[in-house]
Amino acid sequence: MQLSKRETQLIELFIKHGMTLTAQDLAEFANVSTKTIYRTIKKINEASDIGELISSSVGKGFCLNYDNYLNESIRKREGGTVQGPLERRNSVLLKMLFKSPKKILVQDLFDEYYVSNTVITNDLVRMNEFLQEYQLLLIRKGQRISIEGTEKHIRKAVNHLISANRVWEEDFSTQQEKISSYDINFITSLLEYIEKKLQNGIAYPYNSNIFSHIYILIKRIREGEIHADTCSELLDPDERELITQYDQLYQLSWAVITKLNHYLNVVLPESETFYLFQYLLSSRMEKEPIKLSRKSKEALEITNFFATEMSHLMGMRVDYQPNRQDLYEHIDPLLYRLKNEIIVKNDLLGDIKLEYPDIFQQVQKVSQAAEQKYYLNEISEDEIGFLTLYFVKYKEMIHSKKRVLIMCSSGVGTSELLKVKVRKAFPELEIVDVLSARKFSKAPEKYQNIDLILTTVNLTIEMMIPTILVNSVFTKQDEKRVKEMLGEMRDGNRANDE
User: In 3-state terms, what secondary structure has residue 73?
Assistant: First the structure.
C-alpha cells in the first residue's frame, strides 16, 4: 500500500488530534474542503490490503482503525508495498555500488522491473545526479554500466541508501536486502565481542550502524573490487593523534578486522581498521560513554549553547547541570559523526515529528544556528530527532518534579545547609521552602501539593505527607533513604496510572 502525501497527512491528523474526528474537523485541520476529505478517505481504504483504515461512525464522524494502521505500517516496513520509482532506482544503485567498479549489463539491472527504455534512461539520469553528490561517476559503455570512485565515497553512498531503505530492524532481521543467517550470526558475534572487550553495551541504533558498516564491507569484498585508501591519504595529524589517545580502542578495531580476514579469507587494508575505529568512537554506550577528550571543549561549548537556547525557546529551565552532562554525552560523539559524515538512521523520526512538532522545530532552529556559529556540517533530521528526545525528557522531568519542604527547629542555619546538600544530591526535586516546624504548624494550608517533607526534628503534628527524619548534614545514609522513598512514590504513581 502506497499513500500520497495528502493521504499520509490525513492519517497523521487522527494520530495527532484523536482517533475519532468529523469530516469538518479534518477539513479544518488540513485546510481543504469536506469533499476532499471524503474523497481522500475513500482512496485510503481502497488502497488498503487488510481492510478499512478509516471507518465512519454514525453521529461521531470518522475513526482510524489503529490495529489495521499498525499492521499496514509493519507490512510496509517488511517490504510488502509495491516499489515506486525511487525504490527502484535505489535498489539498482545498491547493486551497482556493491559491485563497483565492475561493469554490469543495463538489461540485467532493470529486467525485473519491466520498464521501458525511456524509463531506464530517465532513471540513469537521476541516479547520476545522486552519485555526483558523493563524488562518484556513472560510466556507460554500450550496454554496460559501472560506478567509479574512491572506496570511502562508495561506502558513504551505500550507507545512505541502506539507511533510507531500512534493510534491517533492531534485531538485525533482514528486509529488502538478502543476507544469510550465517552472516547475521557472524556479525552479531563480532558486536558481542566488541561489547565484551569494552565491558559496555553499544546503544541502539549505534549497534545497528556498526552492523551495517561490517555488512557493507563483507558484501563489497565478495561482489566488488576494493581499491583501498592508503592511511597516508586517509589520516590527517589530528586523526593520528586520536589513534594514539585511544590506542586500546584502535587495537580492538584491529582485532575485529583480523577476525574478518579469517572469515572472508582475505587480508583487508589498514584503512578498514581506521573506518571501524571511527564508528566505535562515534557510538553512544549504554553505561559509561567513551570520552572524546580532544573534542571536549568544543562539545561543552555546543552543549551549553543548545541548553541555553532551548531554555529560551521552550520558556522553561532545562539547562540544569545534570541535563547538560547528559546532553554532552550525546553531543560529544555527535560532533565526531558530523565531521566524518557518519550517518545514523532514526527509525522514530516520523513519530517524533508527529508527537513533538514544536520541540522538534525548536531543536531544528538551534541546530541551524549552531551550524553557523561553530562551522559544523549540516545536522540531519535524524540527528535532530535524537536531540529532540533529550529536551522532551527534560520537559517531562520538570513537570514531574516532586515538591519538597525542608524543616528544622529554627528554619535558619541547619536547614539552609540541608537545602544545599539535598539540591546537590537530587537536582530533580523542587524545594518549595525552608522553614521551622513551628512556622509550618501555624499555617499548613499555605503549603499545598507537597510530595515530601525532610525534617531534622521529630514532628509532633500528625502529617498526611510522607516524611523522612534526616541528619542536618545529610549523610549518605539519608541520601539512600530519600532515594528509596522517591522510588516507592514513583512505583505507586505507576500503579495508579495502570
Answer: helix
Alpha helix ranges (H) inside 315-444: 321-339, 349-355, 357-374, 381-399, 413-425, 437-442
pLDDT digits (tens, 9 = 90+) for 440-495: 777 777 777 788 888 887 776 677 788 888 887 788 888 888 988 887 776 665 55
User: What span, in angstroms and rounded, lies between the C-alpha atoms of 483 and 425?
Assistant: 10
Contact 253, 276 (CB under 8 A): yes
Given the candidates 1.10.220.10, 3.40.50.300, 1.10.1740.10, 1.10.10.10, the CATH classification of the domain at 5-77 is 1.10.10.10
Element (H, E) at 131: helix 117-132
Domain borders along the chain are 5-77, 83-165, 171-216+226-280, 293-399, 403-497
Burial 296-312 (b: 16+ CB within 10 A, else e): eeebeebbebbbebbbe
Closest among 297, 310, 380 to 345, alpha carbons compared: 380
Domain 293-399 has CATH 3.30.429.10: no
Spatial distance between the Cα atoms of 173 and 184, rounded to a whole number of angstroms = 8
